[in-house]
Amino acid sequence: MPDVTRAMAAATSIAVSLGLPVSGATVLHNSNKLALRLTPCDVFARIAPVGKEVAQFEVELAQRLAEVGCPVCPLEPRADPRVYTSDGFTVTLWTYYEPVTPDVSPVDCAKALELLHVGMRKVHVPSPRFTDRITEAEEVVADPDRSPELADADRVFLGGRLASLRRAIEKRGAVEQLLHGEPHPGNVLSTKNGPLFIDLETCCRGPVEFDLAHVPQAVCEHYPNIDQGLLDECRQLVLAMVAAWRWELGDEFPNGRLFGEELLRALHDGPPWPTLDTLTSSPA
């Protein structure tokens, strides 16, 4: 997010208006959303420009998932559970947890993800399908104005791979359910209450293997009843989709272009398909 100062001021003013004591704000993460720790009230604030988020969907879904016992980060209990707006930004307020370990262990992450999936099967909300994400990636690849630095040969290769993987996964006819959408390590908090998932705006419907394609291999080894063939196809799909987004004009992902090139090489090199955390240009 380019205007961090204004975004921080918006979140601070909202928290203060709700009677929460704020004298400082620490940036925890800055990408398409800005994540802050507000102190001394210890609130986890997530901020995005108005119109570039699905905050209401995320807030409502977080409440529903918490009600059925899913391991998700809860909303801040001292504020009404809703989306706040200020100075062109939307702000949502969540419970802040001090990390208890730098990373969540693969065993604990797999158990938490399985528990999340079990709870998600009990929640029925209108949500996009995972194929909508493929369409978004295909549109970036197909439009030279949106991906001007993508070479023609790579454009043909990447577009073809996205289309063929869509067909292959659809052909399997796997059972689909509500998913997190991007349960990679950056979206899992290590807390005293165990691993908790954040960033629910990417939730979509699809096979559980689509979620598992975002996590390290060690996590998959502890998740039961995986269809390995489907997981391999979903891993390729994730590599191809992320590659498309890294070539989009205006992408501000750290080392984005290098990461895009590395993802294309991985797709060209063939199996075994790497997980995102093993690629050298990934922040993970």
TrEMBL record:
Keywords: Transferase. The lineage of its organism: Bacteria, Bacillati, Actinomycetota, Actinomycetes, Kitasatosporales. It comes from Streptomyces radicis. One of its GO terms (molecular function) is transferase activity. This is Aminoglycoside phosphotransferase family protein. Residues 42-220 form the Aminoglycoside phosphotransferase domain.
